[in-house]
Specification:
Oligomer: single chain
Order of helices and strands: EHEEEEEEHH
CATH class: Alpha Beta
Strand order of the largest sheet: 1-7-6-5-4-3-2
CATH topology: Alpha-D-Glucose-1,6-Bisphosphate, Chain A, domain 4
Mean pLDDT: 92
Radius of gyration: 17 Å
CATH architecture: 2-Layer Sandwich
Number of helices: 3
Structural class: alpha+beta
Shape: globular
Largest sheet: 7 strands, antiparallel
Helix content: 25-40%
């Protein structure tokens, strides 16, 4: 099976502990997922996140209903965690989230190794573009939540 990598990062102007705390709440995953995926988490929101925890989701990908289950394969607050798909659309999905203190903030990185059923054409024309859109959306939302808004000149002067 051929595997692919997606690597994305975003710098957030907040302490690592605060950013990690946001990710430790599975209910926040809905906020980070584009509406076009019709995502919903099925795992009760009170379920603790820890190594070995299972999280169940439902979504629609290109109109096809999909059930997805992830296992937390590594849980190392506030530095990193890894989720891996145990049931879902990919042949392989291992997603490492890292949180590094940098420049008085936190660099959040997503490193995903994945395998695609259907081969390289499915990867190139369907999966890769969808993943780019999903992770670009995710990082835009994170930046909006954690990076302070810069005041425009009119806001500063009250005009």
């Amino acid at each position: 099976m051929k595997t692919y990598w997606l690597r994305k990062s975003v710098w957030l102007a907040q302490p690592r502990a605060k950013v990690f705390e946001f990710f430790a709440n599975p209910g926040n995953l809905d906020r980070l997922t584009p509406a076009w995926l019709n995502f919903s988490i099925l795992t009760p929101p009170t379920s603790p996140i820890e190594q070995g925890a299972l999280l169940d989701y439902r979504l629609r990908l290109r109109g096809i209903p999909i059930r997805w289950q992830s296992e937390i394969a590594a849980w190392e607050p506030p530095h990193r965690f890894v989720d891996r798909q145990t049931k879902g659309p990919y042949s392989l999905w291992v997603h490492e989230h890292t949180f590094d203190e940098r420049d008085n903030g936190t660099l959040v990185a997503d490193n995903v190794e994945y395998g695609v059923p259907g081969g390289p054409l499915i990867q190139k024309f369907l999966v890769a573009p969808d993943l780019e859109r999903i992770f670009n959306y995710r990082h835009k939302v994170l930046a909006g939540l954690f990076n302070p808004k810069k005041n425009s000149p009119t806001e500063q002067t009250g005009r």
